[in-house]
Amino acid sequence: MINDINPVSIRTTQRHAEISWFDELCGGDTQYLGVMEGERRSNYEHCRDILLEAEKLGYKNILLPSQFNVGQDVLSFASAMAPQTTSINLLTAIRCGELYPPMLARSIATLDHILKGRLTINIINSDFPGKKEDADLRYQRCAETIQILKQAWEKDRIVHDGEIYKNIDLPSDPAKPYQQNGGPLLYFGGISEGARDVCAKYCDVFLMWPETEDLLHETMKDMSARAASYGRTLDFGLRVHVIVRETEAEAKAYSRLLMSKFDEKEGLRIKNRSQDSKSLGVLRQNELRESADQEGFIEPYLWADIGRARSGCGAAIVGDPEQVLQKINRYMDMGFRSFIFSGYPLIEESRLFAKYVLPYLPNISMPVVQQRIPDVTPVTPLTTGPINH
Question: What superfamily would CATH give domain 18-241+327-360?
């Protein structure tokens, strides 16, 4: 773990945190890792309840993920929820290539108007379910999709003739978003060379999964340099689970409870049902877990056993309120400005985090480049003494 943190170059220099929660559109919400529960299945009512509870508790954004199994359709779900919400942003995952880009631009713009500008986009660059494609083709498709979206949002016409999408010449009037400043912010994750380059060139927030602070910092420095080569800066986001209790012992006890019904074979089956279980990012999460101590921690307060039962983000911040807040403050010192938290089960853990940690964070929505960022007084890590609730 690094001791002296030198912040990287970021687009949002003021020290704040966009605190987001996670909605389970793909299935997997559970009390015990590796055990699927019918009452928490990915249906509209359960996903709606997670989102509305997150808004009530004060989270600024919520990730609506896309997966390889069927689950809930992201755009349909976001459209249904938009009129039911008033303050929370919807971080809507879009898999490049699923929709023809001009039509995707139209769909996003329509949703952005329904939300009155509370839309953010998580660009997904991956294979389609059941199909394996050349990585260069996927990166090219992703880049062209973003180029077309930006033209639709910023220009009078979409004029594009690329390797993937050819001979497009259309008026962009129906695709103008509510946000007349370049459209919704684009969040992007991926650690391969092609993915990093696409994000550095086109996107606003680079999302990362939990790793040791040293590895995170190295990736942040690399991405800052790549963005600078295109005359740009990036913000950084962290997608991570969290377990917070009144005491460290209680938090660790709950982590053991989560794993108390875990069966290695069944956990592997559930994990491998996701087509990205062999992606570079997931494999890197697996490698980190090999360096964990006997309790599953890869560094103080970062517990990696969650990755044994699920693909994707595979670690959690675990501790009492002071310890969890201290860890988040270190991440902010490094330059992280967006956090997407989750816990098992989602609704119950969102309440605990909102009770113990959320009030002590400088929590505002991610600003767009053209807007002035409100000044926020830095939060000093609480390392001694109790937090009064």
Answer: Luciferase-like domain (3.20.20.30)
